[in-house]
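step: validate -> pass
step: tokenize input -> pass
step: predict -> running
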Amino acid sequence: MPPRSETPEWLTAVHEADVAADYLRDQAEQNADLRAHAIWRGVQEAGRNGRPAVADLLGVRVGAVDKAIARAKGNPLHSHLPGNLLERLLDLELAEVPPLTTPQWQAIAHLVRATVVDVTWLHDPAGLLADEIQDAGRAGDLDGIDTEALAAAVRTWRRTQTVAVLEAIRQDATDSLPTTDRP
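step: predict -> pass
step: emit ->
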């Protein structure tokens, strides 16, 4: 059995696969929402008898069109922001994150990759990430890292800064994280 301070490689791979599966499910949901909204728009454009006309064009039953309309009405589209505005916002937020040392970023990246980050992180991502850091420190999983100081630093991040960090790690863009040589 490996020492407690090391996560087995296979376990990390399982966690990464779980995160990837969650991401793919989210993407499938977003695509289903986009499809539902397109169908709803088609029904509206077709006017009277739009539901049967759209069903005929799609080669589906009217009931399938009705389900798409219900989905579209219950799930507004997520964003109408132009181009890569959200990506650029995250880049700006990331630039304002106080720099950490390479080992600190490596520790955070390790934890993020081994943690399922989902919608529960929306309200307090910095607090949840700091909690993960402290839990790993208590378990002895982050040797050589002052986990209390690192958790305190993470807790100062704004919500958007934390999301920018999570996204950079998720995209394997850890080289874009602000780094310093001084702890």
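step: describe -> Residues 22-74 form one domain.
step: cleanup -> pass
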